[in-house]
Amino acid sequence: MKQAARTGIIIAAHGRHYLAESEGARLQCVTRGKKTNVAVGDLVDLTLTSPDQAVIDRIQERKTLLYRSDQYKSKLLAANVTQLFIVVATEPGYTDDLVSRSLVAAEAAGIAASLILNKVDVTENLARTRQRLEMYTAMGYPVHEVSAIGQLEHAVATLAPLLAGQSTILIGQSGMGKSSLINLLVPGADIATREISAALDTGKHTTTFTRLYHLAGDGTVIDSPGFQEFGLYHLSEGMLERAFRDFQPYLGGCKYYNCRHLQEPQCAVLEALREGKIAKMRHELYGQLLHESAQTLY
Ligand SMILES: Nc1nc2c(ncn2[C@@H]2O[C@H](COP(=O)(O)OP(=O)(O)OP(=O)(O)O)[C@@H](O)[C@H]2O)c(=O)[nH]1
Ligand SMILES: [Zn+2]
């Protein structure tokens, strides 16, 4: 039998099992060897092994790659996305640590980032949450307010234009309403998810894998499982300081060209911190990330 070569896009990943879309068909895919370096959103060269199965021969060059990492391993979140939406909510509470880590990852990967404040119909914490989010608005990150349950049309009218023509990944802590938003934006997403889940043989764990949906117009949306931690072990010191958007106006203003902005004299970043132009939480996170990257594995 002559094997057919073709290209596809990875629409779901679960462990070493991948699902690709190619020429209108869904194909269960495996990698050659033990490779697990394929991400949702990857464009891949495939060899068909049966009408609905294929082997991934090659990953095409990526425009972007968003990932987390610790000293042991990397976790690829998505390839070729143009923007990141971080979903937060009035309740349950979100942590600035995870939001900021996500923003740093996006900056380092050259991906635009915005925040989506969901559940604005829950008015109890609304004022306080808005106040907390001002930190990000001040850095230039857009914050869009929606309610996936209370104001469906408004939510779609707000988000659909932002998604058009883009490849967007939604991330957020569990319970922020990410799935509710996806279901609003992608009619039939829950059915598609069940089909993908069946194809990947993940049983009932429908929310434990990353998947890509096509939007009605031009554009794709990637939904990823909620997460508790976001390691950025892969970022070097130089990458880290540049990935803090609020540091950028001050970089180059320090006395020492190799300033690490931790305790050096005449450090422009520390000066901005003292003046309240950089939030204490952000500088602490920067120090923590430097510390984490310095952990070497023996
Ligand atoms: N009041 C209110 N509740 C919402 C809204 N959006 C989602 N919820 C509720 O919040 C809970 C969590 O929503 P999900 O969409 O499952 O959240 P998720 O972020 O996908 O959570 P995981 O699946 O755990 O990752 C559900 O009970 C939703 O009904 C909203 O705009 N307002
Ligand atoms: Zn400095």
From TrEMBL:
InterPro entries xrefs: G_CP_dom, NA-bd_OB-fold, P-loop_NTPase, Ribosome_biogen_GTPase_RsgA, RsgA_GTPase_dom
GO cellular component: cytoplasm
Cofactor binding, per record: Binds 1 zinc ion per subunit.
Classification via CDD domains: YjeQ_EngC (cd01854)
Residue sites binding GTP per the record: 118-121, 172-180
Binding-site residues for Zn(2+), renumbered to this chain: 254, 259, 261, 267
Single GO biological process annotation from the record: ribosomal small subunit biogenesis
Single GO MF annotation: rRNA binding
Enzyme category, top tier: hydrolase
EC assignment: 3.6.1.-
Entry keyword set: Cytoplasm, GTP-binding, Hydrolase, Metal-binding, Nucleotide-binding, Ribosome biogenesis, RNA-binding, rRNA-binding, Zinc
Domain EngC GTPase: 79-228
Family matches, as Gene3D superfamilies: Nucleic acid-binding proteins, P-loop containing nucleotide triphosphate hydrolases, Probable gtpase engc, domain 3
Its biological purpose: One of several proteins that assist in the late maturation steps of the functional core of the 30S ribosomal subunit. Helps release RbfA from mature subunits. May play a role in the assembly of ribosomal proteins into the subunit. Circularly permuted GTPase that catalyzes slow GTP hydrolysis, GTPase activity is stimulated by the 30S ribosomal subunit.
Quaternary organization: Monomer. Associates with 30S ribosomal subunit, binds 16S rRNA.
Name this protein carries in UniProt: Small ribosomal subunit biogenesis GTPase RsgA
